[in-house]
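Work Package 3 (structural annotation) set out to generate three-dimensional models for the target panel prioritized at the project kickoff. During this period the team completed the workflow that converts sequence records into discrete structure tokens, so that structures can be stored uniformly alongside our sequence database. As a representative example, we reproduce one entry of 355 residues exactly as it appears in the project archive.
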Amino acid sequence: MLVSRGATETKVASDIRIHELDAAGRPRWDAYVEAHPEGTFFHRSGWKSVVESVYGHPMRYCLAERDGAVVGVLPLGQVRHLLFGNALISVPFCVYGGVLADDQAVRAALEGHATALAERLGVDHLEMRNRRPQRADWPGKDLYFSFRKGLDPDPEANLKAIPRKQRAMVRKGIKAGLVGEIDDAVERLYAAYSESVRNLGTPVFPKRHFAALKREFGDACEVLSVTQRGKLVASVMNFYFRDEVLPYYGGGTAAARAVAGNDFMYWEVMRRAAERGVRVFDYGRSKRDTGSFSFKKHWGFEPEPLHYEYYLVKAGAVPDLNPSNPKYQLFIRAWQRLPLGVSRVVGPWLARGLG
């Protein structure tokens, strides 16, 4: 039985204590995430600081203890927007999330704490972004897939592992004289990424979102920009966690297509990561039957289904906030025609609700 003790703490009869993370607890939280076999970069406590500082969304990071030791964590954030509703998400603006726990009792306690919190806050729904199924009794989505593949220490072996047609695109970028450069700032990333997502009909995040990530995660958050004779072609922000690299925010300028800029960029991420000892390349999330889904398959990556599971509070059905929804097609086509400067001004207000 769970006994509520206000909004920040729950005492569980089995001696599991759940409370909200404070600044002093961050090292213990991150050490647990680092050691847990299902831990991801998106479970790190730094996301709490980033989302709260950039968007003002309240983040409820739930830490479970037994006899004073950390035995589980659940990062949650409440995203409320005039157009897109009110949700409690693990984790907003991230592709992975959900409970990390030592055992099933701890998992059940954290899930119970989360559903009670969702009810108390009166959200539309609670969303858990799991890499593997956890709650068969909750409705879910089969829309999203991740793409992960091992890296060889030998760059030439990694190049040969790319299917022939895609490998030819990488070589096209190499022959075009493209160069990869590590950036300390996010200006070039923002220029390329904001242009790219505008062309896709998607609102862009504010520049301070990327600056906050770089500041919060330091060397674990790297920006790689691709140039040709000094001119920006493409740029990507990569996350490093344990022995994995995940290129997360990336895009190309108008010049990228002619010189295979995006293909070269991801190869450059792969090549550099392998050289520094990284052994897993995580291509991130894509929606089924989209251009990015096909692009990643052409690199020889096999899609792995993600399991987004929902506890419905006020909502009558699982939300469908994605560009594949037909009701958003008119908006997407209009957004693609916006001047780039206008999209950079209006986009962040919309994007803050698309957690």
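DSSP finds eleven helices and 17 strands in the chain.
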